[in-house]
């Protein structure tokens, strides 16, 4: 009974509100035993000051913090887990997390990032392992700033990156090239339509890649080659609007050959056309899509067009020759008339030249004119 009372009393002390806890920020809850500070849904306008130096787990979520900068986390060298989700953060300044020398996990999900400065994710000692940016980018232009910050960052030790739910239409070239230790990449629930060469450059150690719930209708041979450049990665590719027409053939062949790497291969189905809806992509290779027949028909139509054009040109040539034959006398007379006219013009020029070149004839000509 005494032990139970002691446990209750100890719990009350550990979880006492900020007003009763020495050295705890106003409207926050601090637990020195758990090395944790929580400032959850307190309508804070900025990161509170006076956070205890012993803090390792810092949760500041559900507030109204517009921006964070290098002054926000000074003196918190022991923080290993930092959660800043759902704070309406619009700007992350350069060197914001530079004082967090022990930081291993950073959660910035569900914010409204508009400005991400180039050195926003410069973390000393390259300690950061997990970075959550899901549902955090305000618009499509933010991804360019993010790409720059990832290239300039000190995230060579990062192992997990979550970019899901950001409405991404494209990924800048070599956006992940400096994340050489990345093991897990979440790109689900975006609007990606294609994978370009160099998209996943530098991710030689990647083990998990989630591409579910995007806008892929198919994947080109170049995109499939890019995925083959991730030999260790376990892929997830379901819940995309795959269109089972002739262009789907490279993807279907690749999928059947790479079934062991695609964790949800059985759930990849056709969405269009309506007649093939919910048909497994694995079985599309056995369906008569009519691709080769269409190609053969196109070749035959092209050949027929060339033959028809040749016949028309030949007929026009024959008609031209026939017209020339019927008008041969008139044409001959016109040629002779043109010859005689040219001859007269030439003789006139020749006569004038002789007069101009002989001074005597020129004087006689002048006298005669008088």
Automatic annotation (TrEMBL):
SUPFAM superfamilies (UniProt xref): L domain-like
InterPro entries reported in the protein's UniProt record: Cys-rich_flank_reg_C, Leu-rich_rpt, Leu-rich_rpt_typical-subtyp, LRR_dom_sf, LRRNT, Wnt_signaling_inhibitor
Residue ranges annotated for the LRRCT domain, each copy included: 240-292
Pfam families in UniProt: LRR_8 (PF13855)
Gene Ontology biological process terms in this record: negative regulation of canonical Wnt signaling pathway
Gene Ontology CC terms, in alphabetical order: plasma membrane
Highest taxon listed in the record's lineage: Eukaryota
Residues spanning the signal sequence: 1-20
TM region(s), chain numbering: 306-326
PROSITE patterns associated with the record: LRR
Domain annotation LRRNT: ranges: 23-57
Keyword S-adenosyl-L-methionine set for record: no
Full protein name: Trophoblast glycoprotein-like
Species, as recorded: Denticeps clupeoides (denticle herring)
Phylogenetic lineage: Eukaryota, Metazoa, Chordata, Craniata, Vertebrata
